[in-house]
Amino acid sequence: MIVLGLDTTGSHCACAIVDDHRVLAHISEPMGRGHAERLAPMVAEALALAQLTAADIDRLSVCTGPGSFTGQRVALAFARGFALPRRLPVIGLDALSVKAREIEFTTGDALVGVMRDIRRGQVFYASFSHGRPLSPPRAMTLTEADEEADTLQAAVYDADTVDTRILAWLAIDLSPATHPPVSLYSRAPDAKLPGGIDP
């Protein structure tokens, strides 16, 4: 199985192509803005590096956030458009879950806290044991995240970047039914309807 992994939720624009046994291509570039313009050419470059065409991709894996409103939607929209003609499965995974598995693979540390800065003095945080969340990821202050990690005696890691190689590998054994490609928003929208009514 050949999987294309995509992430535009953070400070990098990244993609990877993997099969069951190896990385066929991986590109990751630091980027403040311009993810939408860069992603499609980047995927074309990755396909060329792997000596593949779009028709060789069997499924896609996309990071669902948390991240900026626009950043989350860039890779999700691209994945849906790429998958539509051949009805390819698209798997959605959040940045915290991918980082937890990456840490377990690289350090062997199975009990971890993972967070991502969501600004306004808050982080999005979850604790994991062997890659499985002990509670749903949620917004909290950094102090609250540290307290939860201390209670579990878990080391805390920052999910500022997503390794799209891990993102793609994890998708091999997952189903869109249990891991749909749906944005993970860290807070309610600031927009209000006339009269201050929540949308």
Return residue spans where pLDDT drops below 50 for at least 5 consecutive residues: none
- Name the helicity range: 25-40%
> SSE order, as H and E?
EEEHEHEHEEEEHEH
Q: Report the count of strand segments.
A: 10
Amount of beta strand:
25-35%
- Radius of gyration, in angstroms, nearest whole number: 17 Å
Overall average pLDDT: 92
Shape: globular
The N- and C-terminal alpha carbons lie at a distance of: 42 Å
As an assembly, this protein is single chain
Class inferred from helices and paired strands: alpha/beta
The major pleated sheet works out as: 5 strands, mixed
> Strands of the biggest beta sheet: in what spatial order?
3-2-1-4-5
Helical segment tally? 5
Characterization of the model:
The protein is α/β, with parallel strands linked by helices and 199 residues long. It is built from five helices and ten strands, in the order E-E-E-H-E-H-E-H-E-E-E-E-H-E-H. It has helices at residues 35-49, 69-83, 95-107, 142-152, 164-171, and strands at 3-7, 12-18, 23-30, 59-63, 90-93, 111-119, 122-129, 132-133, 138-141, 155-158. The strands form two sheets. Strands 3-2-1-4-5 form a five-stranded mixed sheet, sandwiched between helices. Strands 6, 7, 8, 9 and 10 form a five-stranded mixed sheet that branches. Strand 6 and strand 7 (122-129) form a beta hairpin. The longest helix is centred in the first third of the chain and has 15 residues, at 35-49. It is globular. The N and C termini lie far apart (42 Å).
What's the gist of this structure?
With 199 residues, the protein is of the alpha/beta class. It contains five helices and ten strands, in the order βββαβαβαββββαβα. Helices cover 31% and strands 28% of the residues.
